[in-house]
UniProtKB/TrEMBL annotation:
Family: Belongs to the nucleoside triphosphate pyrophosphohydrolase family.
Gene Ontology MF: a single term: ATP diphosphatase activity
GO biological process, one term: dUTP catabolic process
The name this protein goes by in its record: Nucleoside triphosphate pyrophosphohydrolase
Enzyme class: hydrolase
Gene name of this polypeptide: mazG
Organism: Pseudooctadecabacter jejudonensis
Record's keyword terms, sorted: Hydrolase
Domain of life where this protein originates: Bacteria
Length: 275
């Protein structure tokens, strides 16, 4: 037996084991009470959380952690499939078959007669064309059909904008986007002073939407940019806490002026260390 066959056999054995464990956990008589009472809606937040934890492990370059987080994410798929099987909707095998069929259909240059001598951009264009055909077969004829509502808002904004841009609904250059940001920022200020909280929320949403559009025009992933900003803020604030601790103080014992000065010092130290 070849090494590939050995790995395939082990993969199948472990997948069968995981499916059996999930079935046992959901057994109404002998299973885990918590697992038994779960539904698609109650499990969905955990599924989203696990996907983000996979991304976090990748960002940290922690392969041991990535192995565990991928297992957690796989378990979420198994959990949903088990509940679907109990409802008579579909099985895990149906899920795997559907994905296999989709990947084969979307890669005719690998599994069909088309040439694979294409650039990544050409392959991306072909991928989008195939997806458009799939949406049309599901009667999703409108440009923005099929962009999942449950996506994180920033990611969904980016996907909506990309779809609209494909049919020509887009600013011609970054300058127009920056002008729109200034306009939307002014509207936020005006709403804050004169309008209701709902109106302020709407204007703030418009500003964030345009910020996502600026990221797209700059070829920047806004989710990644914001994650990096979050990490930077945490790192620098913890530097402020460390500096206060050296003075025998905590943030509660300090004031904004002191913490702001320490923040600037931490920021300068970071920048000088990267030069």
């Amino acid at each position: 037996m070849s090494e590939t066959q050995i790995h395939a056999t082990e993969d199948a054995e472990q997948m069968d084991r995981l499916l059996a464990i999930m079935s046992a956990l959901r057994d109404p008589q002998t299973g885990c009470p918590w697992d038994v009472e779960q539904t698609f809606k109650t499990i969905a937040p955990y599924t989203i959380e696990e996907a983000y934890e996979v991304a976090d492990a990748i960002d940290r370059g922690d392969m041991d952690d990535l192995k565990g987080e991928l297992g957690d994410l796989l378990f979420q798929s198994v959990f949903h499939a088990q509940m679907a099987q109990e409802a008579g909707a579909f099985t895990f095998a149906d899920v795997a078959r559907t994905m296999s069929d989709k990947m084969v259909a979307r890669h005719p240059h690998v599994f069909g007669d088309e040439s694979n001598a294409k650039t990544p951009d050409q392959q991306s264009a072909d991928w989008e064309a195939i997806k458009a055909e799939e949406r049309a077969s599901r009667d999703e004829a409108r440009t923005l059909d099929g962009v999942a509502i449950g996506l994180p808002a920033l990611l969904r904004a980016l996907k909506l904008q990309k779809r609209a841009a494909r049919v020509g609904f887009d600013w011609p250059d970054v300058g127009h986007v920056i002008d729109k940001i200034a306009e939307e920022a002014a509207e936020v200020v005006e709403a804050r002073d004169t309008l209701s909280h709902d109106a302020v929320t709407d204007e703030m949403g418009d500003l964030l939407f345009v910020m996502a559009n600026l990221a797209r025009h700059l070829n920047v992933d806004p989710e990644d940019a914001l994650r990096r900003a979050n990490a930077k803020f945490q790192r620098r604030f913890e530097g402020v806490e460390d500096a206060l601790a050296a003075r025998g103080k905590t943030p509660a014992d300090s004031d904004l002026a002191e913490m702001d000065a320490l923040w600037d010092a931490v920021k300068r130290a970071e920048k000088s260390s990267t030069r």
